[in-house]
Design brief:
Layout lengths: L7 H6 E3 L5 E3 L13 H8 L2 E2 L5 H8 L4
Antiparallel strand pairs: 1-2, 2-3
């Protein structure tokens, strides 16, 4: 059986925490920042944790060796 390939686009967007959760960088912090409040921009800096429903899809299909 051949090795499964990692989806490289997913590998650049998602990573795993030590406990097996999936973390990602939040969107909306690239441009048009003047109209966004400081509180909103500050909260967008921190990584997001993916909901537990989507974790099996990421682990099995996109990042099989993650």
């Amino acid at each position: 059986m051949p090795k499964m390939k990692t989806k490289k686009s997913a590998a650049k967007r998602y990573s795993f925490t030590g406990s097996g959760k999936v973390k990602y960088k939040k969107q909306n912090l690239r441009h048009i920042l003047t109209k966004k409040s400081s509180k909103r921009k500050r909260n967008l800096r921190h990584p997001g944790i993916l909901s537990s429903d989507n974790v099996p899809v990421i682990k099995k299909k996109l990042l099989p060796y993650g």
